[in-house]
Amino acid sequence: MKNVRRPVIAVLIFALLGFNASLRSVWSQNNSTQLDGFTAAGSATERNWETEFRTIPEAASAREHLRRLTAQPHVAGTKEDYDTAIYVRDQMRSYGISSELKEYDVLLPYPRQPTIVELVAPRRERLALKEAVVPEDPSSSNPKIIPLFNGYSATGDVTAPLVYVNYGLPPDYDALKKVGVDVKGKIVLARYGNSFRGVKAKVAQDNGAVGLIIYSDPADDGYMQGDVFPKGPWRPATSAQRGSVQFLSTSPGDPLTPGTPAIPGTPRLKMEEATTLTRIPVQPISYGDARRLLEPLQGPLRPRGFQGGLPFAYHVGGTAGVRVHLKTDMDYQVRKIWNVISRIEGAEEKDRWVVMGNHRDAWTFGAVDPNSGTTAMLEAARAFGGLLKKGWQPRRTIVLCSWDGEEYGLLGSTEWVEENATELKQKAVVYLNVDVAVSGANFGAASVPSMWKLIRAATRDVPDPKTGKTVYQQWQDRTRDDSPDAELADAETGSDTKIAEARIGALGSGSDFTPFLQHLGIPSSDMGFGGDYGVYHSAYDDFYWMSHFGDPTFMYHVTAARLWGTIAMRLADSAGLPLDYRDYATQVREFFAESMKTARQRKLTSGIDEKQMNDAIDAFSSEAEKTERARQDAIAQPRAGARLQRINDALIAVERDLTDARGLRGRNWYTHQIYAPGTYTGYAAQPLPDFRQALEDRNTVNAGEALNRIVEALKRATETLRKARD
Amino acid sequence: MKNVRRPVIAVLIFALLGFNASLRSVWSQNNSTQLDGFTAAGSATERNWETEFRTIPEAASAREHLRRLTAQPHVAGTKEDYDTAIYVRDQMRSYGISSELKEYDVLLPYPRQPTIVELVAPRRERLALKEAVVPEDPSSSNPKIIPLFNGYSATGDVTAPLVYVNYGLPPDYDALKKVGVDVKGKIVLARYGNSFRGVKAKVAQDNGAVGLIIYSDPADDGYMQGDVFPKGPWRPATSAQRGSVQFLSTSPGDPLTPGTPAIPGTPRLKMEEATTLTRIPVQPISYGDARRLLEPLQGPLRPRGFQGGLPFAYHVGGTAGVRVHLKTDMDYQVRKIWNVISRIEGAEEKDRWVVMGNHRDAWTFGAVDPNSGTTAMLEAARAFGGLLKKGWQPRRTIVLCSWDGEEYGLLGSTEWVEENATELKQKAVVYLNVDVAVSGANFGAASVPSMWKLIRAATRDVPDPKTGKTVYQQWQDRTRDDSPDAELADAETGSDTKIAEARIGALGSGSDFTPFLQHLGIPSSDMGFGGDYGVYHSAYDDFYWMSHFGDPTFMYHVTAARLWGTIAMRLADSAGLPLDYRDYATQVREFFAESMKTARQRKLTSGIDEKQMNDAIDAFSSEAEKTERARQDAIAQPRAGARLQRINDALIAVERDLTDARGLRGRNWYTHQIYAPGTYTGYAAQPLPDFRQALEDRNTVNAGEALNRIVEALKRATETLRKARD
Question: Is the distance from CB of B691 to CB of B703 less than 8 angstroms?
């Protein structure tokens, strides 16, 4: 406790005494720079509004939002979830922002009976499957905390020998085959990590396992990472990770209405027709419980990379001597969920929408995941409300979305996107996602490359509460600390020029940007402040945890609101949209070079027309360069309104061009040719997805075909840009 | 037990049924190649003798040697140690090889009283410091097993707060300073690994610690590596690592007679004058005991890289709340040790010595360390004896050395080398060390680069018992498996050409090659077969362990004897010595390039004459090339005897040229300019030692000076080669 409080107090004092001074110093420092997308005069006006905007979010207000939102567990579809929807709607309205609930009817299972996991041999022992009450943390004893279960697990009752499959991914099953262990007809025990959990379920099922138990190994988010809750922020022995095992890489959203909105009148699949549901029972357990199963395992010693952090040598099992009984009973029903859609009308381009979104439903209290994000959205909205009262109106419309059912599989966002697909394709400028806004102090972002400059620029205008530097500088410093070579170089020069721009990642999946970017082709981003966070999807992701570990001063919630709102304002207010496709071309070139390295190593180059692709990238790159010059030119000329409008429209349309209506191979809901979640990652992106997958599969015919589609997409994008300059 | 026995039986069957066939197939395959250093006729004769030689070593005989040698614990200077000397001498004599004991009087401490390590606060708890008796393993209850202690620990009695210092190396203390923890006046707890333990003692003392406790973390050689003894080969909870904490990087050998032989009449330092002894008490403990100290530690959470395998988050301590009492009582005496020196006279060049060596003393039973090596030497000697009876006599003299007191600090070898320095400088061709011959099936070697080709060639002529391939192939396959990139490349081609030659390492220290190579400049090598070995310097390094885990069939002992003897025979019998300095030049060039990379990164290039060094390497390289041609030429010409003799002498002298009598900075016992143990590694080599150390110290003046000495050495070596061709 003592170790934890020391830094907290330091930050608090800093926040109280020094922060406003620091905020102003950051502003004055950057005020001289003209904002991208604005004229000189427009930039000055925008800066004034932004300065005003960023003074409004407050720690006390953020704290109160989070306290209210996390007062009860609020799993999607429950009364408590509905209450949070009403809270968000009413807050929005109180800020002078119009806000409505939007309801969908989706397949939502809850556990009907507590799951049974028991060792049958070598002795009979039933596992607790219960997260301990922590006396210091009052909400940990809340009786409404949903039992440990995996969303979309099948109902099942199986007894079989147990096999430990490490992370439960294809290379792990390969390693098991090498030591002579087959999982067919067996129950597999996988540890969390390295992929979305639905992938583990699919791979287990595809390998013939009859059940899957997933546990949190202490090496991954328990004591090997640091002190465990309530002493520290990491996962304690009884805690387990709830979560969906939907086949997210196939498609997200309501499993019974893929591609169509889950509204009255939409035809629904039968459950057995759904392609995103596992047929085997799946259950999460804690490492305290997992130890009871793992320690008696016989069979071969774990292959390299399988050992976790429990204090014995892991074996893989598979022998008849260790058998497990797994019984799940899921109550599958079509239930209602509630998005909250709020809207600030644009003054000049009301049919151009800057969409912000965050989900609201949580597995338990969701202090980190997702209500730190909800809090940031509410504070940003409160600040927008403040500006509206002073006469600001955005040039374009800002839409603020509070999604429901994200945890089960991006349900609320996907259904809304599917319902409004036509309109969104016409009107959406970008989608700005925040899921977890705050689990610590370390900024991180992923986005399409056209938004990189915009995001970096905004982080240069927002101060970091802990260091007093800008968010950008803290972010870049951390990148340097994590890169030992660069550190070496820097030790001599004292300059930070050795590290290029702080890195923005690629979008995979696991949050609500997926329908926007990967189904419709809307430029998207995702961001937040991360830290030591070991209570993910557990009963301890609550107000106590946040106020002791994640953000005791709530200043990172404030910072997230400032940053997210600043980015939205620049997109909503700018004359010429600050989207730059030169970075996109560079990124695609890198993705392709990397893939070709693999192709060459594997001697899969035969069917690949490398030149055609490089030509397409070159053309795209050169057109992006011309577009950027034309855009700057049009912004500077007072009478170039129509020309600028054409360019703006093109900058939005380009991303749509990168989708292909035929969809990706075997998962045609996903249409984007550059970004998709990996088939075997779920969370992480697989850039140039069908091309890379073909290389993984060593299928040169597919690789050639996939590359052709990418080339076509780049050509469409190039042509769109070209035509905008005509 | 079951998992262990399966592979054992497989190997046994293979050994019984297939092995002789495989041995012959390896021979016939390679019989066509002419041996380096021999004429065509000479090569054929040599191959016949070698074939004969390699059939003689036998598993049953090896097993019996090991059984006899490990019947009792035999720490240096004890009666049981003397008994093993007599065994070796008598065996040698029984093979027809002359053999004598050679005695030295060296400083040897034994624990007088069992050490006390106890937690004083937050509660009083005395640690067990005792390795458990394992019922299956009869020798584990032997009352003569020496208690857990560190050789050359000081006697001391201290009580102080405890600080966990990770591996106890300089970067660890830097990391502690960053989190505000100072070790001055405290007892430090370090884990074994990443350096020779004497380095940990010196660094602890230099940082002001008053005591050092060293434990074996389960992440390093316990359950995180695999099953623990007696279920598996890794370290169990009560087991700890004995071992010397002499300042080996300063100099090895008797601490009271540095640079001179520890024989009657040699003046001796007082103990307080010795520069290689620690002044603080040092004690090894098990992870079972360490847990009692580590778990209550408070203070900051461990910095990155400090977490080990015990099941809680480590803290670094340093607070008054956790205090430890450490009391050691060492009985320091000058005691006798006994080398056994055996000799096979050379027929034509009896004053050219091919020296083989292995130590015999052990911390307990020494089945692996070192008596697997002693066993291999005895089997090689028995085979030499067999050849002698059939009329073989080596061209040069073979000297077989069984060293004593290696564990305390290379005492037997160092004193013998110091006593015979003048003669060795004239006569020694090479020194072939084997310390641990067998802890598993994986061949590994380190040597001066001039011996690389010779070692590789020999491994191509010896079959690997487990795979039936050659030792070389198994070694190369493993290199490929450990190198994922290469694996990728290879998966396509199926060829093994993607991986260059299997790698031979650089000689650091930690075994008896050090006085030969690094004090006198005698070309040296070290080799053995490694594997999963977690009982290093424990009570369980015994016959039971070896016959269950290390080498149940004893065929790797046989293989080690075959390989070591083959290399010795080629050096002893060849007309032209198979030493190739082209590889040496290449290696020095690589070492220099690597160092210059560091120098450039740190901007330390100012005082460094890079061109001068590159010129010296070029000249050496070109002269090595000419020498090699001259050598081949002289071998082929029947009447070139005198010329070949000059070349042979030069090939030996070159290595002496690489030493500098002024010695290395601050440790002048070490004279070799290319190879020395790292100041902060002990075991691992620090190539171009003074140059690299100066770069570490960021001292450009020292760097320039060190490089000048290396350049001088290379010039001497080049000149020696040049003159041999005159």
Answer: yes
